[in-house]
């Protein structure tokens, strides 16, 4: 269920690090909790992100939720597909990144692997 | 029952017309305007005969539900009766241009000044401005006063407004728009402000606290004196969100509770119609220390006390927050209401609003859950409680109420109560209306247990069923295309 | 005394007894005793309906209005077809609140959807919101849209905007810590386009008006070029009643169009309630503040209207919302929509042509009087224009003796006149005679 190829935050976001670039998205668990996602307010290439702070807003019909960055750095790519098809986050949360960030700071110790994240979800429930 | 209804654009037929204009007694002058500044095509507006236009809107109105159709216990919105005499009298001023020289609009100015004075007395404030157009607009205006107050004392550090988590969404949004940071504090288990949390939240950055009293749970804040003390001692000011003023007219006044600045929703407490979402009016009242910052113009009397004029010369004023002087037509209706009821009538309205809410709450006890079960003010908050185990939620109950001829209560607010239904009957309703509503609520609770599927199918008596809101938001269609 | 409480004293006592209370005072036991008001409110005596009617009539008599009116400057007297006040008096509309429950509010929601469509067609743009308080607050909200979309706090605005609009923008702008830069008018009374271009660096966009406050029709396409060349957005503040004959915002490349809908079927009413409209390109739709109606379907596939894109709004985003507005001017918006339906394409064109014709005829007549000159004789105007004359105040005083409201006297002594289809040629002759006499008399005294 939860892929092994990446790390997870306590805010239910995933992060996949390649070199100095981190691809980030939300977990299936988060997408399900949000319900039908109707809009993703994407960051813009060039935006600065700060670890633990919001870089994106995801909207359902009756809620809006901030998505928090796992790293500090600069946005180098965003998933424009989500602009026209926000439902893709519901359909395949792990297959859809939101943004890729060239980071200067990351706290690996804070991040969980798949097993730890699954356990975290169970405990939270 | 289900039926679509054509748009006015779909009724358009080329060449039909509902307008007429007198013959133009001046020579055409369109050649005075260069071609590049002129329109290059006719407007794509409907062409329709008057009878069809009249039927269109008349039938649209029949697909709508107002207080005149039935009970409308929408919490926090005070959907009381809108007196007809007020509707008839407000248009008396329809032809007065706002920029007449003051000597030609003395009647309007006098009425506004008299209104300001009455609102001061009702609220225990020192001055009122009638300029804000709605409650949220009043909040923004009031917060601008707080900002100006601190800035004029040279205190630029006070950038935080404290807002309880039970507050209306407009409170934090208005604070942000006024340039403040928002610090949210948790409510105490009894629904009131948590004094310890407040003490911990205030400091040299505190600009003020926004509070609704009675709270959005419909409960009077018993610690209000202590709250005022904490905020004032920390150097902050107290903002009163007047959304729930209908509970306390003639009984207790925001000014006496320690509030420095407040707004009123004339379309709630003072009976002006909500108009389907506007126009409203959100006058702002202040204590004397905030008077210098009020929006211009101020209505003042000249030296002989005989003539009113508009004074724009207020160097410390926050400026203007709207064109002209406010929603005058709405102000006239509220003025009529206050003059009709007088002191005794206003108090009677508040007393009966509170009585009706408690009467309904008492009858719903045991069928629905009452998370804060104590004497409420003008509204009460209930939840489906154990009915949820049958797979229905607050929204389902609301839809079932529609089929029984009622406008549902406010749902999913306040946010701090899970699956909230906020019921505000107002003083306008008779005992039998309340009894019938309670019977409907009981009937729904029964049906939930026996036939939850029917509840999920509701409403069935309306022209359309539950809308697909997800598609509406994902693929927004916000205008007609032909 | 009037009471709108149906329950009798006896019923109230019975209801109190049922909840275990003896008196109304028991209901308010939570309120600290020393805070309670210990006296009745000091308000004027309550009135019966007929007394109230007399009182309101007494206020109206203190006003002096009703004669010919030549004043606009942000509030305009146009003919209001009788179907508008009649239809908007349907209490299913006016006693309703925000259409939160779509199934029982289709009338309002559809009317709103139609209104948004009307605004889109008037302006030529893609999307409109359900309205805001008035034109001035629409300008303030547009300013915040520019900030949010471009993430820049510098915004240019024209000195030709209505002064109330400028003041309101500054009031909002102070809180938002905006940098507002005023672009002056040139010698033709229209905004200096070179100055726009020169100031655009670092700016999110420009807010201009056409016709501007002084009545002059602005060459907005030139402003659009200057603004877009620097990646900015153009906001056009328009008088909607001009749009039957004048170029529409989309025609000259405006990204946002705003204005006050009052000329479209709303009474003067001493300044309100009016209605602010806002329209924009598809790209900017999500930046629109406030409510928006949208179309969708129910489970059976019926067309249904709902409030949509709500997750932008304050009740969901709270302090992160871009605007705090939680209402609109619904009833006023519907009135403007009704006006557009009554008038249709031909009515809108004819009313525009009549305004242009009458205003030009009157301007010409005025300028035949010695000492009166158009301030900007080479600049096209719609239904307002500025004249320079000595003793403007004396002219208005003389007109007031005949219950005529003359042009607005500007701070610099000029006069801003407004002529609509409600004025007629006979009035022009009469007014010019009075002005001629006034000018002659002043001359005679010297």
Report what the structure shows:
The complex is a heterotrimer of chains A (125), B (482) and C (446). Chain A is α+β, with helices and mostly antiparallel strands and 125 residues long. Chain A has helices at residues 28-34, 81-84, 88-91, 114-124; strands at residues 7-8, 13-18, 21-26, 37-41, 48-49, 54-60, 64-68, 71-78, 99-106. Chain A has one domain: OB fold (Dihydrolipoamide Acetyltransferase, E2P) (Beta Barrel), CATH 2.40.50.100. Chain A is built from 4 helices and 9 strands, in the order βββαβββββααβα. The longest helix of chain A is centred in the C-terminal third of the chain and has 11 residues, at 114-124. Chain A starts with 6 loop residues before the first strand and ends with a helix. Chain B is an alpha/beta fold. In chain B, strands 1-7-6-5-4-2-3 form a 7-stranded mixed sheet, sandwiched between helices. Chain B has a 3-stranded antiparallel sheet with strand order 10-12-11, covered by helices on one side. A two-stranded antiparallel ribbon of chain B has the order 8-9. The longest helix of chain B is centred in the last third of the chain and has 37 residues, at 328-364. Chain C folds into 2 domains: 83-339, Type I PLP-dependent aspartate aminotransferase-like (Major domain) (Aspartate Aminotransferase, domain 2), CATH 3.40.640.10; 345-445, Aspartate Aminotransferase, domain 1 (Alpha-Beta Complex). Chain C has 14 helices and 13 strands. Chains B and C meet through α1, α2, α3, α4 and α5 of B and α1, α3, α4, α5 and α6 of C.
